[in-house]
Design goal:
Chain A is of the alpha/beta class and 350 residues long. Chain A contains 13 helices and eight strands. At the A-B interface, helix 5, helix 6, helix 7 and helix 12 of A face helix 5, helix 6, helix 7 and helix 12 of B.
Chain lengths: 350, 350
């Protein structure tokens, strides 16, 4: 375990914890006393049919979802819906390498898959809240991976699904990109196979990781139009150091690696022996597939190819030059499009 | 100096050497006894108006240009033209960190700019060959940077210009990507600030560098269509280890870093106080701007923006899913398009 002031109620709260005594993991490990951190907004109605589940992305927590996506008058409106944002395992609020006691934490934290998260979330929403349906599952990036996993694994429960800027089966290209992110961290001698004394020992690796996020996370148009200046940074160096690096440098390297490993292997086709068509054919949720138009991680063409395999789904790309990181919400027009699509999806009878 | 069997006549010959006694560098250094390695094909005619100059790209040498681009019946036809392929400084055949004697070599090799290469090349073609015009300057990637530099610096001499898959002024995005490549090498403890005993000491850094080339060098469509299998590799791991890594692992890390520094800073606007429009306005060569349609280093949109600033130029993108590395020539249809454009350009009266 390492102390980390970033992963606290002060920074990300308020959130609640739900404990699963022993989460059996698909790769064979066990998470004992697994904690799922979640934040909820709004009230569950008597029919229990107004629940929305939002899983989180790589490095993200329930806080940015709350700040950027949830609000009265928005699509994700807590005056209408009971919204549960669940932090993925490894993100620092839920059970993660940095907060798991020895010997199971840090570099010994077990391999976790998207399916493990979704089974844990299923236990939370069924046992804690007594839900038997979700009006919507929506998430971006790794949140989209979890959304797809929900829709394929529990089709009877998921009424609507909105995977944003993510895929059902990760591509070879994105797998390789993520490997370069992992390499950036693990190659730092201070990483010490995950048993560093302090995340600061991995400072250089985290900086390299942040730069690589900057290269692929936005878009070439973002750079061409000098969007970083519009976001308040005087130069590219200023942007790299005081935005990209500032964002990641407070996080725990093992936590990031736990999520990266999971991200690389997101793949609903595992349910059907590798047959993606058959897996996506199981989806009964009304689904809007929503890539970001300039996303270099999950390009629209990759998302479109999957959309064609989902019964009765709609392809709703979001136009933006902010690339994958339009998820951060810095492009209000992208947020507006996303809200409009979600509002339409939520209004659909299913 | 380090021995390196890769940078030899056996692998890259035959090539000749031209010596410049002391090349004064724009950054203030001096290359004493600067060697320019070049290969020539065909014969100079009596009018001395059939010369074509081809500068090289990052990591490339005159050999791949010869193998992939030059041939009878091709646009670059040695039965019609006197073709000189000049190896850029730092590429391992011309003066480079690995072949410069101490104390000026390895980690002490001076900073070289695109403009230094082009001035050295100018001396070669004017003094050695007595040329006062070039029918065409054509090059890919860093070869395109040198092509633009030629057309802006020596407009009276360059009759036609064909920058392929490269820009006149490097973008902030590409600069940052290249920085991550540099980081991949310099972060290897074996790099030792450029004073390694053997390039093998930097093996892990070179492997990380090769993976990052794989992520950005091709395209997401390349991966989606599993082009690596069509190229003879059984899996992505096979492709990374036995193609991307095999290609770079024989090279000298300091040589790559010398070229990367130069690549990051390619910018013809330096001639006019940063005014790119004014710099490109100096071009009198008939110019075809030829990006690769899926290039992630030098995206078509970036090349198109520059094309608009060049008098009477034509925008001729090459359709391919091989991305930037279509330059390697694995997509015969891309080569066919390129040949057709060059043939048309060479036939134009100027």
């Amino acid at each position: 375990m390492t102390e980390n002031a970033y992963y606290t109620q002060d920074v990300h709260g308020p959130y609640e914890l739900y404990e699963i005594e022993a989460l059996q993991l698909e790769e064979g490990g066990t998470l004992r006393g697994c904690q799922l951190a979640y934040a909820s907004f709004g009230e569950l109605n008597a029919a229990k049919d107004n629940a929305i589940l939002i899983p989180t992305w790589y490095s993200g927590t329930s806080k940015i979802i709350e700040d950027v996506y949830i609000g009265e008058g928005r699509a994700l409106d807590p005056s209408k819906y009971f919204i549960v944002v669940v932090n993925q395992i490894g993100n620092g609020l839920s059970s993660s390498p940095h907060n798991t006691p020895p010997p199971g934490g840090m570099g010994n934290f077990p391999r976790v898959r998207i399916g493990d998260d979704v089974r844990a979330q299923h236990q939370l929403v069924t046992e804690k809240f007594g839900l038997d349906s979700l009006a919507l599952v929506v998430g971006g990036s790794m949140g989209a991976q979890q959304t797809y996993e929900w829709a394929v694994r529990y089709p009877d429960m998921v009424k609507r699904a909105a995977p944003v800027a993510g895929t059902a089966k990760n591509t070879a290209h994105d797998h390789l990109f993520t490997e370069t992110l992992v390499d950036a961290i693990t190659s730092d001698p201070g990483f010490n196979k995950g048993f560093y004394a302090s995340p600061a020992d991995v400072r250089e690796g985290l900086l390299r990781h942040a730069k690589m996020w900057a290269v692929m996370g936005w878009s070439t148009e973002f750079f061409q139009q000098e969007r970083h200046k519009a976001l308040g940074f005087s130069s590219m160096d200023d942007f790299i150091v005081n935005f990209m690096n500032a964002y990641f440098s407070v996080m725990d390297p093992n936590n990031l690696l736990c999520m990266a490993w999971k991200w690389q292997r997101g793949d609903v086709s595992r349910h059907v022996g590798g047959d993606l068509r058959a897996a996506l054919g199981r989806v009964t949720a009304k689904t809007f597939v929503m890539p970001m138009s300039t996303d270099m991680f999950f390009p629209p063409a990759d998302c479109e190819a999957e959309w064609r395999l989902i019964p009765d789904a709609e392809f709703r790309p979001i136009q933006t030059i902010d690339g994958h990181l339009a998820l951060f919400g810095a492009d209000p027009e992208a947020l507006g499009q996303l809200d409009a699509h979600l509002t339409e999806l939520l209004a659909m009878k299913v």
